[in-house]
Design goal:
The protein is an alpha+beta fold. The protein is built from 14 helices and 6 strands.
C-alpha cells in the first residue's frame, strides 16, 4: 500500500469506527455540516496532556458546563478554575489554561494557524498541530503517543524513543493528507488507542495490516522500542493538617510557580532527599499517627510524614488560613493533598 492508499484505508475505517468523545465532532456530524469548536478542541487537548481519555471526560463536561465558551473561561475566577482542575494533575496546565483563554478572548477568536496558536500561553508544537488540524483542517502532523506507536509499527522503526521522535514525525508527515487532515489525525489516535495497542495489538482487525512492516516481520508487539528509564529519586518531608475546634481546616494556596502551583493545599515542609527539619505552621501539640502520604510525580517519588493537630479558635497560624468547614471542599484539593486528607480524617475526631 502506498501512502495515499494507507490514508484512504484509515479514513474509511475511521468513518465506521470513530470513538464518540464529548469534545469530538465525528464523521457523521461533519457530514451533516457541523464544524469542530476550536475552544472545545483546545480544552480537550490541554486536559489530555499526560492524562487518559477515560479520566478527562467528566472534567471536560464539567468545564464546558460551567464555562461554555473561551470568553466565559477567561472571565472565571482563578481559584474556581484551579479547584475544578483538582485531580487532573500537572497544574501548570491550569494556570496556562487561564492565561491562554484570556489572550484568546482579548484577540476575539483562536488563531487558525499553527504559528499563531504556538504564540499563545501553554500551547506547544503538539497542541498547536492538533488544534490547527482538528479545528481548522490544516494539514499539520499530529504526533502523540498513540500515533508514534502506529507509525513505528507501520514502518518497523527500531530506533528507540525518544531518539526516534524526529524520524517518526517525518514518516507521519508523509501520511498526513491535504484532504480531511483533522479526521486523519483523530483516526491515527483512535487506531493506536483501540487496535494498535501497546500490548497484544489486534492486527487482524487493523485496516493497515497489509501495509504494516512490523506485522510482516512478526515484531509488532515489540515496537516502539524505548530507552531504559532512569529510576526516580525519593524526596521526603512533612505535611501538617490542623483542625480548629469549630471544624475549620488550616489551608494555604501554594505559590504560582512550582509543583501544585496556585492550588489549595495543606501546609508542608520542604521536599528534600533527606528528611528536613519539621516546620509546623502554628504552635500546637502536633501528633504523629505513624502514617505517611506517598505520591509519584513525573521526576520523583514523594513521601510525606503526616502530622495532626487540634487548634483552638483564635489561634493565628504563621502561614495559611483557616477555611470554615462549610466552605471546604475536599474535591478541590490536588490528588496528593486529598490523600493526606483521607489519611487524616481516618485518625481525626469528627
Amino acid at each position: 500500500m502506498r501512502d495515499l492508499e494507507i490514508g484512504a484505508a484509515l479514513l474509511e475505517w475511521y468513518d465506521a469506527h470513530a470513538r464518540r468523545l464529548p469534545w469530538r465532532v465525528g464523521p457523521a456530524e461533519r457530514g451533516a455540516g457541523q464544524r469542530p469548536d476550536p475552544y472545545r478542541v483546545w480544552l480537550s487537548e490541554i486536559m489530555l496532556q499526560q492524562t487518559t481519555v477515560a479520566a478527562v471526560g467528566k472534567y471536560f463536561r464539567r468545564f464546558t458546563s460551567l464555562w461554555p465558551t473561551v470568553q466565559a473561561l477567561a472571565a472565571a475566577e482563578d481559584a474556581e478554575v484551579m479547584a475544578e482542575w483538582a485531580g487532573l494533575g500537572y497544574y501548570a496546565r491550569a494556570r496556562n489554561l487561564l492565561k491562554c483563554a484570556r489572550a484568546v478572548a482579548a484577540m476575539g477568536a483562536f488563531p487558525d494557524t499553527m504559528k499563531g496558536l504556538q504564540a499563545l500561553p501553554g500551547i506547544g508544537p503538539y497542541t498547536a498541530a492538533a488544534v490547527s488540524a482538528i479545528a481548522f483542517d490544516r494539514p499539520e502532523t499530529v504526533l502523540d503517543g498513540n500515533v508514534e506507536r502506529v507509525v513505528a509499527r507501520l514502518f518497523a522503526v527500531q530506533t528507540p524513543l525518544p531518539t526516534a521522535k524526529p524520524e517518526l514525525h517525518a514518516l507521519a508527515t508523509r501520511l498526513t493528507p491535504q484532504r480531511r487532515p483533522g479526521d486523519h489525525a483523530q483516526a491515527m489516535m483512535d487506531l493506536g488507542a483501540t487496535i494498535c495497542t501497546p500490548r497484544n495489538p489486534a492486527c487482524g482487525l487493523c485496516p493497515l495490516s497489509a501495509a504494516c512492516m512490523a506485522r510482516a516481520r512478526g515484531i509488532a508487539a515489540d515496537l516502539p522500542r524505548k530507552l531504559p528509564k532512569r529510576p526516580r529519586p525519593v524526596r521526603m518531608g512533612y505535611v501538617y493538617l490542623a483542625r480548629r475546634s469549630d471544624g475549620a481546616w488550616l489551608l494555604e494556596t501554594r505559590p504560582d510557580k512550582g509543583l501544585l502551583g496556585g492550588m489549595l493545599a495543606w501546609p508542608s515542609s520542604d521536599w528534600t532527599e533527606t528528611l528536613p527539619p519539621e516546620s509546623p505552621p502554628l504552635a500546637a501539640s502536633w501528633r504523629d499517627p505513624g502514617l505517611e502520604v506517598r505520591h509519584t510525580f513525573t521526576h520523583f517519588h514523594l513521601r510525606l510524614a503526616l502530622r495532626l493537630a487540634d487548634a483552638p479558635v483564635g489561634v493565628e497560624p504563621s502561614r495559611g488560613r483557616f477555611v470554615r468547614h462549610q466552605d471546604f471542599r475536599p474535591a478541590a484539593l490536588p490528588t496528593l493533598m486529598r490523600k493526606a486528607y483521607d489519611l487524616a480524617t481516618a485518625h481525626q475526631p469528627d
